[in-house]
Structures are given as structure tokens and as C-alpha cells.
Design brief:
Elements: H1 3-26, E1 31-32, H2 37-43, E2 50-52, E3 58-64, H3 69-85, E4 88-94, H4 100-113, H5 118-127, H6 133-142, H7 147-156, H8 158-175, E5 182-185, E6 188-191, H9 196-207
Helix pairs in contact: 3-9, 4-5, 4-7, 4-8, 5-6
């Protein structure tokens, strides 16, 4: 290979890399399910834990598991994107698919919601390497909740909590989600973790949907 052939080859490689980067940075994210009746009902959910930032003119539904590594990475990116955007309503759908420890963590988080501390518990567990009994109790106490009350609520309201998790499960399958994390961003369905930049693009894309 001559010197000029080598230079041409390197130029083509660099051009391809730039094109790939631009395509990734400007391509569509997820798929539109604007005509899905299930999606419309899920976006109107009033029962699940939720937070409204600013005007909340875009609704984001999160399907997540506290033992899902990708969920943990994406959660921080999503929170940064939401803070930067400032006008997002977030609905949290605990979807424990990683076994008994995940199920117990989801139940504790929903029981903690009865004390108004679901959100700090959620954030703690999303940053925690473990979701064992110690981590669950610590998450509640750091959030300002009462662990003994959580245990009592798990007994007294266990049936309702299980029904809520079953409803989340049905919602996930009605959307065709294959696993966690999954996001319904307006009428845009996204499967898998995104970066902060990708979440921001997804917000813009969802707002542009008809």
C-alpha cells in the first residue's frame, strides 16, 4: 500500500467514524406508539408514585428493577436530563423481574410511599450496590421514614401492594417491554438504558409527536 493509499484509507475511516457519531447523535430514539390505547391509559395513571417538575408538559413512565445494573446507570442520567429540562412529570413503575430480592425491594419502596418517602428510598436503592435487608432498612431511615411502620404496612397493606406490582407487570407487557429498564416518554417507547444526552433528545422527539 502506497503512502497516498494509506492516507485515503485513514480519511475514509475517520469520515465513517464521524458519520456514525452524527447518526447516533441525531437518529430517532425508540418507537412511536401514539395510537396505543394501553400507552394512553398508562400515561394517565394517578395511582403510582409520581413527581411533577415545573409544568410537567411531558410525562415519562419508568419501568425499573432495583437489581438491574442498566437501570442504575440510566437512572442518574435520566435524573440529570429531567433536572435540565425542568418540565417533566415522572411516573414510577416498579417492575421486579430479577427475583425475590427485587420483589422485596419493590414492596418496601411502595410501603414507604405510604409515609411519603418513596422518592428518596428509590434514589438510595438505585445507588446502592446491594438491596439486602440492611440496605432496605437504611434506605427508609435515611429518607426520614419509620422502618417499623414499613413492616406494619407490608403486613396490613400487602395485598394492595402486590396488586399494584401486578398492575405494573400487566402495563409492561401491554407495551411489549422485554425487560428493564423501559421508558414510555410521551408516546415514545424506549427499551434499554440511555445517556443523559439521549434522554434529552428523546424528550424533544416525544414533544414533536402529533
Amino acid at each position: 500500500m502506497t503512502r497516498w493509499q494509506l492516507i485515503s484509507l485513514l480519511a475514509l475511516i475517520m469520515l465513517g467514524a464521524v458519520f456514525s457519531y452524527l447518526l447516533k447523535d441525531t437518529g430517532t430514539i425508540g418507537r412511536s406508539i401514539v395510537h396505543s390505547a394501553s400507552a394512553n391509559l398508562i400515561l394517565q395513571d394517578k395511582e403510582s408514585p409520581q413527581l411533577t417538575h415545573g409544568d410537567g408538559n411531558l410525562t415519562v413512565v419508568i419501568f425499573t428493577d432495583y437489581q438491574c445494573p442498566s437501570c442504575k446507570v440510566a437512572d442518574s442520567a435520566l435524573q440529570r436530563a429531567i433536572a435540565r429540562d425542568g418540565d417533566v412529570r415522572v411516573i414510577y413503575k416498579d417492575w421486579p423481574i430479577f427475583g425475590e430480592s427485587s420483589l422485596k425491594a419493590a414492596k418496601v419502596a411502595l410501603a414507604a410511599h405510604r409515609q411519603g418517602v418513596y422518592f428518596p428510598v428509590h434514589r438510595f436503592l438505585m445507588k446502592s450496590a446491594q438491596v439486602d435487608d440492611t440496605a432496605l432498612r437504611t434506605s427508609v431511615e435515611i429518607a426520614g421514614g419509620n422502618w417499623e411502620q414499613v413492616e406494619a404496612d407490608l403486613l396490613d397493606h400487602g395485598t394492595q401492594i402486590v396488586r399494584q406490582l401486578e398492575a405494573n407487570d400487566r402495563d409492561a407487557f401491554s407495551l411489549g417491554l422485554q425487560g428493564t429498564p423501559g421508558y414510555l416518554i410521551g408516546s415514545l417507547l424506549v427499551e434499554g438504558a440511555l445517556t443523559e444526552r439521549e434522554f434529552t433528545r428523546a424528550f424533544k422527539q416525544a414533544r414533536a409527536e402529533p
